[in-house]
Amino acid sequence: MPADLKNRPVYVISVAAELVDMHPQTLRLYERKGLIKPGRSGGKTRLYSERDIEHLREIRRLTQELGVNLAGVEEVMRLQYELDDLQGEFEAEIERLEGAIRQTQALPSPGAETDPKDRPVYVISIAAELVDMHPQTLRLYERKELIKPGRSGGKTRLYSERDIEHLREIRRLTQELGVNLAGVEEIMRLRHELDGARARMEGNVRRLQQDITERMTKWRELPPASEQAGTDESDVADE
Asked: What CATH code is assigned to 1-65?
């Protein structure tokens, strides 16, 4: 289903509640907590979109199947909304750039650049000190795939600046918000997905912008049409 159709508010609260097997009062509670953001009709009636239904099903999975508390669910849904917004921005930007590209000739795209924040530089003892955790805790989080450090040629774990940010976020979720590890896994999975989507979007936009610049430069370097016509006529005369 196209993204714009998935965001179209169409279901009244009674239908939405039936679709996700919840009581309408539960949907109102989730709205008050900012977990779900239904649209409104002209008469202020709540209207839920297909994406809202997906989000409500995800909330039910997190709370009923994984036992995640509401603080953890709030983190998950905030990240999910960020992903949705990023996807919308990406599609709009790509459409704008492709419109500009259609006016020029195709050229090969340059390679993507690596973000310095992803460069693995810290050994496990330094990383553990930076985030105030025991190295064994970092190994546990790696086994649970909450964090994915790089490796040196000798297989030594090396953590990047982004890994350090993620470890600090895990500590905040577990110690300050009381989120269980199942909830943290969901949140960190979404964080990795969000970081990856953002990096891909920025890389694609950068390549398209470079594409346009190179094509416009080539276009400006072409001789004026009158000069080109004069050259063609002299070639004919010489023959």
From this structure: 1.10.1660.10
Q: For residue range 81-122, what is the model confidence (pLDDT) as tens digits?
A: 888 778 777 777 766 666 665 554 444 444 445 678 888 889
Please state, in angstroms and rounded to a whole number, the distance separating the CA atoms of residues 15 and 13.
5
Sign of CA dihedral 113, 118, 122, 126: positive
Select from 124, 197, 129 the least CA-distant residue to 168.
Answer: 129
Q: What angle do CA 108, 85, 185 make, to 5 degrees?
A: 100
Give, to the nearest 10 degrees, the angle between helix 181-221 and helix 70-101.
10
For residues 139 and 128, is the Cβ–Cβ distance under 8 A? no
Domain boundaries, the chain: 1-65
Handedness of CA 218, 220, 226, 227 (dihedral sign): negative
Quote the pTM value. 0.60
CA–CA distances in Å: residue 206 to residues 45, 110, 190, 195: 42, 9, 24, 16
